[in-house]
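Limitations
The structure tokens in this dataset are predictions for the assembled complex, not deposited experimental models. Users should treat interface geometry with appropriate caution, especially where small molecules or nucleic acid strands are included. An illustrative entry is reproduced here so readers can see what is and is not provided.
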Amino acid sequence: MREWLARGMPPRHRARGVLALCALVALLALLKGAGWMPRFLDELPQHFETADTGGISHNELLPADLLLDRVFYFLLDDLGLSAVTRFVSRSLKELINIFDNMLLGGGKGFGFDAPPWSALLAVAMVLGYALRGWKLSLLCGGTLLYCALSGLWKFTMQTLALLAAAVPISILIGLLLGILAYKRRAVERALLPVMSVAQTLPHFAYLIPVVVFFGVGHQTGVIATIIFAVPPMVRLTLLGLRKVPPEITEAGKMAGCGNWQLLTRVQLPSARNEILLGVNQVIMQCLAMVVIAAFIGASGLGYRLLHKLQALKIGQSLEIGIAIVLLAVALDGLSRAWAEKKRDYTANLPLLARFKYPLLAVGLAAGALLAARYFPVLDRVPRDLAVSYAATWDALVDWIVINWSDGLDAFRYFLILNILAPLRDALLFMPYIAVLALVGGLGLILGGWYSALLTSGLFAFIALAGWWDRAMITAYMVIFATFICVLIGVPLGIWSALRESRASRALFWCDTFQTFPSFIYILPVIMLFQVNDLSAILAVIVYAIIPAVRYTVEGMRNVPRELHEAVTMAGCGRWQRLVQLELPVALPHIMLGVNQTIMFAFSMVIIAAFVGTIDLGQQIFKALSESNIGKGVVLGLCVSFMALSVDHLVTRWSRERRRLLGMD
Amino acid sequence: MKFMQLNRRNAAACALVCAAFAFGGAPAHAQDCGSKDSIVIPTHNWSSQIVMSHVIGQLFEKIGCNVEYTSTDSQAVYEAVRIGDATIEVEVWEGAFAASFNKALDKGGIIDAGNHAAVTREEWWYPAFVEEHCPGLPDWKALKACAAKFSRPDSGGKGVFVDGPVDWAHDHFVPMIDALELNFVMKNVGGAAALWAELEAAAKKNEPIVLFNWTPNFTDALYGGKFIEFPARTDACIKDASWGVNPKAVRDCGNPADGYLKKAAWHGMPVKWPAAYKALTRVSFTTNQIGTMAVYVDVDEMEHDEAAARWISENEEVWKPWLYAAQ
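Predicted assembly:
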């Protein structure tokens, strides 16, 4: 019975199924057009703003926001959870203060003097060399040199202090939860859906509870960062432990390991690769949060960036953005190199050789300390010596705005009037029941009754919670942005994958751009296209196109070489090989890329509320500034549920496809 | 040289520690502040507020207080002050924050620490070059006549008023547009940065624009520009439909042209840091001083704490009475 519920339509009936579904949706739309649609199937009561009171009405059927509010405040006030959270907050603050003191000196801690930048640079370069070699060493050195010379040293160190607190805590929590989930099936079952929601919940939606529970300030930013960084660590720990071959575990047991020994001596070391990949992911996620955490008080590069943006200093923001990207690339390189470093258990080196790198680092740092005494510029780069090329960037943006505007105006008018507005109106016109039928029907076709129930249920929540129209506006922007991303990103990926050197370069740029703070390009986009949905959609496209390119390149690359040989021997030309072999085999992976593009689009469209949209994102920001937990979380869930429905459908399809292709 | 500095710093640190432990021997100012806990000063995302926060923070340090700064949302901050997460708020704008401030006042926990001398204004505004496109400005009737010049592709021929984000709660403007029969629609941007991006682009392209702005602000120095002169705000305008140009509607007038700029504090502050609280109540900046502080950062590219230090060194006669007036 359960299996039957989870089985989709057999592939040969699918075309008919899709056709029938389209007919049904069209029929529902026609019914509404003709005025025969009963009102309760067309739209449910919604929130609306009332200009006179400034408040919102609570006439939705499912007052989820009020319920959540009650739950949160019960926890906070009646159960006295706030005392606990405030204690956590205070302890964390002390911890961060310690790191701050170490990197920046002064403060209320030990009263250290700040280490000169040249000393840290020396240590970083030795670290890079020890872990991988010259290239990484130069990358690390270059990054810190850039930060020192561009006058961003203080902010870089604040960000590093934040990372120094957030990363180990995230790893620890992630590791613990991952192990628990591995040991207890019930924990896993409870954890997985929570993590799915957490990973699709817009950042700004969970900033609200974090602020209410933990207060404002630097440490609250760190807590938000930790919450964001934990899920990938849990997933990868779980994956790593699962992959440990039973033979190894058995061998451990036979050697007489207890449970604890088995875990720490056998299973965790065997899962080392996945766990270290998790560490790498944690670092990347933390850096991705640098700017967003600044909204609730995290200091450092993110705060600086937001402030510069607020004063419309685009060039300076770009400099900060580049610093963040460089930090990400360097830390990514370091953590990867550390993960891939093979430990040589057999070497029996003399003491000096074993500690040559630490000794070298200490020696160089001491040298730098000494040198900084005589050449103060090695200690702090004074601001009048700082190198800035912000003016060049600003001039470039100005030039583009002045010279391109006229041409772009026509483009803008055309897109808004002929494509975007009609698409939006069409989605808003659709009765909610038609949309439920559409997502439910797709679920039925691809994954059976279980999927149908899940997807339509998730959308039904949005309708019942009273945010339908705004959700549809979000959906329309995501749909259009995804369409363009696929249209550009997939061919770009295919083209890159045609040649190996181009493919690795494409992947490198994907990695780099992914950590570039998306807030920066929002402003130039506004200057070119003014505040409207088009600007928001363009900002989404710039960000969400990355996975479309990346997964296409990866998918194409992963087509087994033997198959290439086989079709070449069968006499296929390059073009035939592409169309007949590579694309079909890569398609499931490309579809995962499209799925990621959609996920990215959902996350970015909320950030694009900074442009000025009238969708769910706008209300989330409003909830944030009102500290309105219930409303913010419900809005976040609306976004998350739409994303999860799409994710469910696409991954189902892709998994099945891979099975049919014999790739799993 | 560096070595000397180190020594001096160590000596200072030692002196502080000694002062903290040796009861009677402490320098007079160290006792003044009250509690040794840090006074938490929240900063937001516009320059004058950050510099003013640093000025007040540095003044507090002069009377021996410990101070720390934390960046927060400018609306959420009132809840933070109310529950003591933040200690003070140095710029409470009537137009933008009165609602949040009053809400926190009603709940209890926040106190009004008096007004600045500065008068604030938040209103429809245009940069100077727009007068060429629409002669007769700043009179609102001229704006009404030029509505079409401010239109955009998605505004259906109506003029567009570029407004701040929805959370700035501009509930007055919608009924005002109706009451004055302006052929305008409001376009809410997502944040102040988007507002300036619109302004900058319009200035570059020499396109007419009317947007929400306030004074004192850094745009004063950069773009010139004026507020639209709507019929003056009176109580009658809000309550009595028969008042004003539209006898059938209320709110046929602009925003108040003389809004307050307040300071607020956590209610525990007068007990915990009495001297700092007394000083805070006496702090009063003028519009010019606030503008100057914004210029230090936005035009002269100084850091916030440097700008604050510069203002303090240049305006000793202004702040001395705030700190050391007869108790």
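Some entries come with short summary sentences. For this one: DSSP finds 16 helices and ten strands in chain B.
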